[in-house]
Amino acid sequence: MKTAFLFPGQGAQTVGMGADIVRAHPAAGEIYRKANDIVGFDLSRICFEGPPDKLNTTTISQPAIFVTSVAILEVFKAHPETKNISANVTAGLSLGEYTALYAAGVISFEEAVILVQKRGEAMQAASDATEGSMVSIIGLNEEKVRQLCTEASQGQLLKPVNFNCPGQIVLSGSKEACLRAAELAEKHGAMKAVPLQVAGAFHTEMMSSAADALSEALQQSHISEPCDNKNISNSDIKIIANINADYYTSAEKIREGLTKQLTCPILWQKCMERLLADGVEKFYEIGPGRVLTSLMKRINRKIKVVNVSSLDAINNLVNSEPPIN
Questions:
Q1: Pick the catalytic residue: 133, 153, 188, 203?
Q2: Which residues, other chains included, contact 30 with Cβ-Cβ below 8 Å and sequence gap of 6+?
Q3: Strands (DSSP E) found in 177-258
Q4: What is the pLDDT of residues 208-254, one digit of tens each?
Q5: H or E element at residue 321
Q6: Side-chain half-sphere exposure of 46, counting CA atoms within 13 A
Q7: Contact 35, 63 (CB under 8 A)
Q8: Is 203 an active-site residue?
Q9: Cα(302)–Cα(297) distance, rounded to whole angstroms?
Q10: CA angle centred on 164, ends 161 and 165, rounded to 5°
């Protein structure tokens, strides 16, 4: 049976995440201590204690989510009841792709923390230099969302950038255009429009300067060559890319994909549909929150995702046949 490990992206953060894991498993605490040394401040304290407004910033939330996801993953892999569960393929939503690459063994923890911190800083700097925002549109298909964008843009940047699941597409662009889209969404048949609390217009050309900075950092980073065999049944772990819903075949393609993430749409629904088409039957969301678990219910109701976001969730998994959430 083919298995996928899924890792959440920005927005999954909550104050207190990872604290229960660290209290029970010293190895998880060591992961946070390593991360603190790399980022140069007490990241663990912000994860465990907040304040929320600090944790929710782009510069903090990105390394915080990555490190917490790794801590949960490592405890999951070492726990006597779950250590025999392994992945054929990994996937991560936007930022989560870094955790997917780490889990597949193609990038080290240290390299990933450095890159994720630089990514967050670069995206924040690009956001400060522009006037961008994002809004989630609920209940419209892609064609109707594009019609909404045409009406709401009025010559300003506005485009669909996160294709999360049927009926949930996120728009990104200028603040004014996003506001107009939110106001016009119901007229176009949407159930609702939800403005997102983000720093800027992620996954658009407004992030070009961030993409340039990240590309330079990626060129200086060591990334191992991934398995390029298209058969995900073999012993090597494959990684699927957000930007094209295809498997990474080289380190250079990984660098290219991580750079393009910042200015190109995230095709999460297509990624999950690709994994299902390729025979993946078991899915584990590993990291804070339940976002990916919820999205899969909209992509394919027959597929269950085991949510592994806390110590209790790990303890509930028995003999590699976990209860399905």
A1: 203
A2: none
A3: 192-195, 238-239
A4: 999 999 999 999 999 999 976 555 555 689 999 999 999 999 999 99
A5: none
A6: 22
A7: yes
A8: yes
A9: 8
A10: 135
Q: What confidence tens digit (pLDDT) does each residue in 112-156 have?
A: 999 999 999 999 999 999 999 999 999 999 999 999 999 999 999
Three-state DSSP at 7 gives: strand
Please tell me the predicted confidence (pLDDT) of residue 322.
Answer: 47
79 is catalytic: no
C-alpha–C-alpha distance, residues 136 and 35, integer Å: 32
CA separation for the pair 13, 50 (Å, rounded): 10
Does the model's pTM come out above 0.90? yes
Burial class (CB in 10 A: 0-12, 13-18, 19+), 308: buried
Give me 270's structure tokens: 């297509």
Catalytic residue among 94, 127, 153, 174: 94
What region does 139 belong to: left with phi over 0, alpha with psi -120 to 50, or beta?
A: left
> What was the pLDDT predicted at 235?
60
Mean pLDDT of the chain: 94
DSSP collapsed to 3 states, 123-186: HHHHHHCCCEEEEEEECCCHHHHHHHHHHHHCCCCEEEEEEEECCEEEEEEEHHHHHHHHHHCH
Q: Report how far Cα 191 is from the mean position of its chain's Cα atoms.
A: 25
Q: Cα separation of 107 and 37, whole Å?
A: 18
Q: Report d(CA 322, CA 8) in Å as an integer.
A: 20
Question: What's the rounded mean pLDDT across residues 87-108?
Answer: 97
Within a 10 A sphere around the Cβ of 72, how many other Cβ atoms? 28
What are the residues whose beta carbons fall under 8 Å from the beta carbon of 212, sequence distance 6 or more? none
Spatial distance between the Cα atoms of 64 and 18, rounded to a whole number of angstroms: 10
